[in-house]
Amino acid sequence: MQESRDPRKKSGNERQFITENIVKRPLTRKQIIARGLLFLLLAVGFGVIAAVTFVLTRPAAEQLLRPEPEPEEATVTIPQDEMTEASLPEETESEEIDESEAETEPVEKLVQDALENYRYTVGDVGAVVSALRTQAQKADRSIVTVRPVHQDVDWFDNLVETSDSYAGAVIAETDTELLIITLQAAVEDADSIGIIFANSEEADARMKQQDTISGIAIVSVEKEGLSEDTLESAVPLALGNSYLVKEGDMLIAVGGTAGIVHSSNYGFVSAIQTNMQMIDRTARILYLAIDADAGKGTFLLNLSGEMIGWAVMSGEETGSTVEMTEIMGISDYKSILENLINGLAAPCLGIQGQVVSDVMRENGMPSGIYVVNAVSDRPIYVAGIQNGDIITQINGHETISTNEFRNVIDGLICGQLIHVTVQRNGRDGYTELEFQVTVGAR
Questions:
Q1: Are the beta carbons of 245 and 329 closer than 8 angstroms?
Q2: What is the sign of the dihedral through the CA atoms of 384, 439, 186 and 153?
Q3: 440 - beta bridge partners?
Q4: Which of 195, 197, 292, 389 has the most Cβ atoms closer than 10 angstroms to its Cβ?
């Protein structure tokens, strides 16, 4: 019987299949060159397409992906006033009269007699009052109500908001904002600041900068969102030259004169005190024969409608027996005001001083600024400069006059390290010392 054969089993006589690998024929030199040229052509083609695509899509991509640069804030510049002969107190005329004065005396006497004998009518008085009222009403459109809001909690943890009203005046503008001067007390520690314009339109404001020494602050309101009526009526008040104000001049008071915003008054300058020692400068203080509320914000205008100062103290505060208000002249403050309007802190060294006079120099004192008071905790005091020292140089600039001293300080930057040279009196006379002072902020 024959055995069945399993086809999967190989007999010893059977041969296995030979495994073969098919190898491609090597490329010829011509084929290699042809393929290389084709590769180069394709690479150039793709490069051209990519370049064209990049050029066409780049503007759109940059517009979509690149963040828009923040617009730079415009800088407000306030021209400075110089003390001129016209602004100095008038000297008493000499008793001697030259021939030209003698010739004009009859004419002057005629004019004087005519004025003394002229019988003013009610119409004349009405015309004067009407002109003053018109100027005050025009300025009042630039007066705003500043309403600071303070938030607190009561005994039961309920949120309580309190607010008050102060006067402010629009004194500058940029393309994007209106800039308002007001009292520092109006914005100090406020959680929010509201502004009400003369036409009753309301807007939010932010504190731009403040001066803790003079008690003045600048707040700004964005123009975007304000009505055309507000933008047309709230025109910035022009800043005048307080050096030109003389005794007997009439001034117009606007703002919070009567303790209520949008009140006004008129008065005459009774006295002017020059070279009042303030911190880091001397000032010209005007005394106005009216009772104005300095605590609410009162701003003074000349008869041309230009702002020449603001009330810093009322009659009751001075203890005066008559109604009298102290006015800070704006000309002594314009450099500080320019910093505040532009959002910059005004530099401060912290001294009350006076120029060494000719008499003092004759007694052996060197030229410079005599330190009457190095204000406690201010930069000069912290650096070690003492009362009685004489400041002769700041950062190499001589300070032998009031204007030089003020101009040097106005050119400093808060936080800047400066060198202050002083002369200090001792047993062997005056000795030159140098101090490093870090400029502070007002």
A1: yes
A2: negative
A3: 348
A4: 292
**Residue 242: predicted pLDDT:** 93
Q: Which of 141, 187, 191 has the alpha carbon at shortest distance from 165?
A: 187
List C-alpha distances in Å: 318 to 26, 87, 321, 325: 112, 26, 9, 8
Residue with tokens 């020449």: 308
pLDDT tens-digit map of 356-387: 988 988 888 999 999 999 999 999 999 999 99
Q: Which residue has the higher pLDDT, 338 or 119?
A: 338
Alpha helix stretches (DSSP H) within 306-434: 315-318, 334-341, 358-362, 379-383, 402-410
- Separation CA 162–CA 87 (nearest Å): 45
Cβ–Cβ under 8 Å, residues 131 and 250: no
Helix (H) or strand (E) holding 203: strand 202-211
Query: What is the three-class DSSP state of 118?
Result: coil
Backbone angles phi, psi at 173, to 5 degrees: -155, 155
3-state SS class at 294: coil
User: For residues 267 and 327, what is the distance between their CA atoms, to the nearest angstrom?
Assistant: 12
Strands of 290-337 (E only): list them: 298-301, 307-313, 325-329
CA dihedral 388, 394, 397, 400 (to 10 degrees): -20
Contact 286, 294 (CB under 8 A): no
On whether the pTM is more than 0.85, the answer is no
175 vs 71, higher pLDDT: 175
Between the CA of residue 385 and those of 58, 133, 336, 361, what are the distances in Å? 62, 52, 24, 21
SS3 9: coil
Separation of alpha carbons 374 and 387, rounded Å: 6
Provide mean pLDDT across the span 101-129.
Answer: 66
The answer to whether the beta carbons of residues 223 and 212 sit under 8 Å apart is: no
Contact between 312 and 294 (Cβ < 8 Å): yes
Count of residues in the chain: 442
Cα separation values, 263 from 50, 96, 318, Å: 72, 48, 22
pLDDT digits (tens, 9 = 90+) for 149-200: 888 877 877 777 777 899 999 999 999 999 999 999 888 888 899 999 999 9
CB 314 within 8 Å of CB 294: yes
Q: Which helix (H) or strand (E) holds 168?
A: strand 166-173
- In this structure, are strands 250-255 and 263-278 parallel, antiparallel, or unpaired? antiparallel
